[in-house]
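Design a sequence for this backbone.
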């Protein structure tokens, strides 16, 4: 079959769009500042101070992050362009201009990723006995073994799909990798097209050595194995060209929650729709055959700006079998988690420990299993516990919490779980858990219409000897045992009546129809959180004007809300010193004369993903520790403050405030993992000076690991 006569879809000639001067913009662009975050992630792979297999892992994380960015953010912008939306972002860019800026930023990063992999990581892995080999680098014996593996394990799984008048262009699933093959019949000149999907059920890298423990390890990729055995799939045909390609589909599906009678069914339908959404990116191998590439572009209705040539690996997330090799000298030291000192006795009464005083946990340095998981497990098993209520946002696979809640319900306890079905890319898993809980008699709520429920809270109602008492956990991270090992998060266990009464009211809001707005201690979104934060910033301004100590230190994942940014600008102009520790994207511009001279923005990137949120307001106190500290689930973003249900709690005992200040101080003084943001949105990584204190030179994560070990109570 000849190439389709259908022409590719070049972008419509855009109307001339004036691009504002970025140097005069009040805010930075959300999309490009997020890409700057992912550039910092990629730098961990480039940095030779990172252990070698961990550098490989960061190549994979960079790719995974970028995949989600294309599905969510690029997909949404493309939808706006198609709809003719001309409104500009806060920095003055149209959707079309933002797409152009995104592509301009990504291309050099992809080149850096490929160069780091080919020129550094692969070579250094080989010097340590881990060989990632091309087919022509295998010995004859290894090629024979690989062919034998292909016949025994791969051949029957593959499904070659021809494209001709009787076989339409096949459906290609999101993030799947395929081989495009151009064929010719021996007796004809006509070029034919076929597609072979690379099976996801097979290992991405095949070991071709003897398989002895400890190496050397010699691997060939599954893609290379299939490519070099295509004659088995197309016997007697002539293979003219082969190209790997991978597609990304839009996941920014529009929804109308207010018009649905069944949120569960609506989300299920959305998942089915998402499988067939438009393709927003095509990644392909190097030096493509123009005829073949044009064929795919036409079939998928893409533009040239949607194409990304990958000069090395097509998908670095497939390196997981290599990353997971047991080669300790090429990895971070093993993580030895400690129990929080107040919970050091695993047989002790956890409720008595909480009554003895609030407990602050810092994960993953302190064990999630021995604190949060233990709290919920003890509540399920304690005959004096009458009720358990929990919010589940991303609970992960094989969640122990679900089985614990089911056991509690079967024991006759009142159990309620708010399962957020709208947690992006976790919808299917959450539907499964919600249905499992319902079958066991748990009261399951799917959230508040129009809002995602993002708060991380557990309420336990217990009959104590002196009467009914509530115990709560309020955290910054999800109830997910997997991410609790690699995300840094804080959690508070308390039975402080002012806080627990607020949590009772919060659950009434989530499960019933409460319109309560006067919470005692909690900052609750979308009810009072934004107003309270703005008031706290204004109070620091007034303290500064009155000559009282004033300072703001805030740690979060992302900063974007324009009202909060403008309040921080006003505080800076009043002379308030402001330190923002923002891991991801930040739309505020620090260090602009006359606007934000007194604002510094730092990002910490390293072994763990910084996920905790801590907010400090000095509140006129001579000692920073005597100021106010808050932790919780919300960033300073519009969606967190006004479009989600979130909870922020004060941290009041002085000993716990000291720990919060210790965490912030270590990060602000970090000379190893910290990056300083410049006013144009770029970042510069700090480097330890020769005379830097050992703690700052080792970086935040190692410093906190050491401190946690030092304060651990001997068993």
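Sequence:
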């Amino acid at each position: 079959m000849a190439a389709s006569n259908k022409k590719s879809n070049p972008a419509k000639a855009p109307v001339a769009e004036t691009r504002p001067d970025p140097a005069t913009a009040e805010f930075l662009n959300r999309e490009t500042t997020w890409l700057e975050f992912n550039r910092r992630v990629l730098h961990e792979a480039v940095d030779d101070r990172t252990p070698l297999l961990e550098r490989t892992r960061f190549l994979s994380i960079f790719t995974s992050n970028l995949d989600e960015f294309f599905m969510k953010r690029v997909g949404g912008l493309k939808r706006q362009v198609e709809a003719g939306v001309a409104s500009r972002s806060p920095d003055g860019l149209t959707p079309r201009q933002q797409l152009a800026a995104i592509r301009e930023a990504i291309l050099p990063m992809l080149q850096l990723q490929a160069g780091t992999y080919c020129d550094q990581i692969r070579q250094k892995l080989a010097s340590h006995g881990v060989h990632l080999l091309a087919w022509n680098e295998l010995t004859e014996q290894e090629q024979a073994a690989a062919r034998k593996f292909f016949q025994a394990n791969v051949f029957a799984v593959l499904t070659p799909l021809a494209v001709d008048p009787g076989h339409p262009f096949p459906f290609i699933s999101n993030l799947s990798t395929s081989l495009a093959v151009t064929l010719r019949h021996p007796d004809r000149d006509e070029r034919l097209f076929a597609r072979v999907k690379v099976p996801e059920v097979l290992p991405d890298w095949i070991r071709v050595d003897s398989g002895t423990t400890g190496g050397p390890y010699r691997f060939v990729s599954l893609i290379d194995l299939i490519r070099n055995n295509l004659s088995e799939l197309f016997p007697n045909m002539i293979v003219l060209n082969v190209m790997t390609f991978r597609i990304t589909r839009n996941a920014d599906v529009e929804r109308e929650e207010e018009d649905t009678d069944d949120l569960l069914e609506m989300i299920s339908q959305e998942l089915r729709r998402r499988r067939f959404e438009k393709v927003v990116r095509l990644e392909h191998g190097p030096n493509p055959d123009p005829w073949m590439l044009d064929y795919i572009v036409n079939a998928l209705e893409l533009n040239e700006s949607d194409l990304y040539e990958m000069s090395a690996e097509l998908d670095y997330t497939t390196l997981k079998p290599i990353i997971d090799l047991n080669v300790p000298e090429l990895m971070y030291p093993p993580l030895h988690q400690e129990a929080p000192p107040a919970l050091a006795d695993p047989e002790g009464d956890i409720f008595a420990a909480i009554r003895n005083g609030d407990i602050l946990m810092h994960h993953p340095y302190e064990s999630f299993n021995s604190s949060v998981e233990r709290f919920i497990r003890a509540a399920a098993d304690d005959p004096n516990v009458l009720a358990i209520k929990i919010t589940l946002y991303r609970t992960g696979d094989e969640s122990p919490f679900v089985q614990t809640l089911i056991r509690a319900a079967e024991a006759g306890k009142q159990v309620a779980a708010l399962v957020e079905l709208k947690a992006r890319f976790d919808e299917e898993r959450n539907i499964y858990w919600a249905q499992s809980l319902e079958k066991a008699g748990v009261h399951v709520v799917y959230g508040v219409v129009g809002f995602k429920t993002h708060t991380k809270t557990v309420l336990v109602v217990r009959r104590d000897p002196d009467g009914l008492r509530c115990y709560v956990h309020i955290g910054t991270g999800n109830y997910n045992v997997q991410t609790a090992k690699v995300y840094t998060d804080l959690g508070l266990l308390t039975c402080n009546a002012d806080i627990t009464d607020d949590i009772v009211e919060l659950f009434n809001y989530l499960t019933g129809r409460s319109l309560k707005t006067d919470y005692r201690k909690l900052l609750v979104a979308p009810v009072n959180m934004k107003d309270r934060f703005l008031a706290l910033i204004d109070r620091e301004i007034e303290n500064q004007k009155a000559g009282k100590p004033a300072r703001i230190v805030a740690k979060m994942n992302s900063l974007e809300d324009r009202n909060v940014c403008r309040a921080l600008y006003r505080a800076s102009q009043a002379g308030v010193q402001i330190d923002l520790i923002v891991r991801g994207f930040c739309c505020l511009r620090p260090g602009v004369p006359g606007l934000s001279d007194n604002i510094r923005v730092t990002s910490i990137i390293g072994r763990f993903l910084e996920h905790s949120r801590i907010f400090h307001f000095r509140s006129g106190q001579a000692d920073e520790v005597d100021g106010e500290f808050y932790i919780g689930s919300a960033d300073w973003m519009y969606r967190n403050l006004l479009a989600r249900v979130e909870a922020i709690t004060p941290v009041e005992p002085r000993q716990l405030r000291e720990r919060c200040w210790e965490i912030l101080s270590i990060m602000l003084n970090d000379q190893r993992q910290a990056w300083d943001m410049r006013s144009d949105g770029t970042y510069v990584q700090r480097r330890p000076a020769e005379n830097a204190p050992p703690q700052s030179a080792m970086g935040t994560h190692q410093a906190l690991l050491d401190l946690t070990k030092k304060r651990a109570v001997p068993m």
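The radius of gyration is 27 Å.
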